[in-house]
Amino acid sequence: MMFTKTLAAFASLGALASALPTAIKSRDTNSTSASTGGGVTIVNNMDQTIYLWSVSNTADSEMVTLTAGGQDYSENWRLNPDGGGISIKMSTTPDQSDVLQYEYTLVEPTIYWDLSCINMGGNSTFTTAGFAVTSNDSGNCPSATCKPGDTACADAYLFPTDDQATHGCPDTVSMTLNLGPSSAE
Fold first, then answer.
1. How far does the signal peptide extend, from start to end residue (predicted)?
2. CATH number at residue 83
């Protein structure tokens, strides 16, 4: 699958995508925006600040700071200029250690997405708190839940060939990734 092939590129881009913290809730994706109307919102329900970067094949992302207690970040589905995927990297530190990733690739009329725990430590704050993805189209789009403490979550990539964790949805879907206590179902 495309995620397996681009995983190495995502890992190398992590070192390139750093900047000063910016407290924003959404991002104007300009010329790389897709016109599908769908996208993802990431909600910080944790009791600490989350740092995130939306990375394509270029180091075009500024670090976004989500403060504790429900601050969110939204992004419309966008295209990677090289045809690969987008990775939204989330960390509890601005140095991108212990990273949870929400990855997606737009191939109209489908958005392929996954959660990746590959770059998270065994004692990750994200694992301790739990996280879950839901959508506004549960009939055509699967959800994914990693309950608090689940170090072997079947709904996320744990190693690069964990392809059962990739999902496909209509590209008009709006998804929400809840980080923290409200994600425990």
1. 1-19
2. 2.60.110.10
Res 148 pLDDT > 50:
yes
- Region of residue 148 (phi > 0: left; psi between -120 and 50: alpha; otherwise: beta): beta
Q: Give CA–CA dist 51/44, Å, rounded.
A: 10
> Scanning the structure block, which residue is given the tokens 């394509």?
56
Sheet holding 86-91, edge to edge: 64-66, 50-55, 86-91, 100-107, 110-116, 167-170
Q: What is the mean pLDDT of residues 128-140?
A: 95
Contacts of 26 (CB under 8 A, 6+ apart): 73, 74, 75
- Residue 73's domain spans which residues? 2-26+35-183
Which amino acid appears at position 17 of this protein? A
Angstrom distance (rounded) from CA 26 to CA 6 = 25
| Counted domains in the chain | 1
Contact 147, 130 (CB under 8 A): yes
Q: Pinpoint the alpha helices (H) of 15-168.
A: 125-129
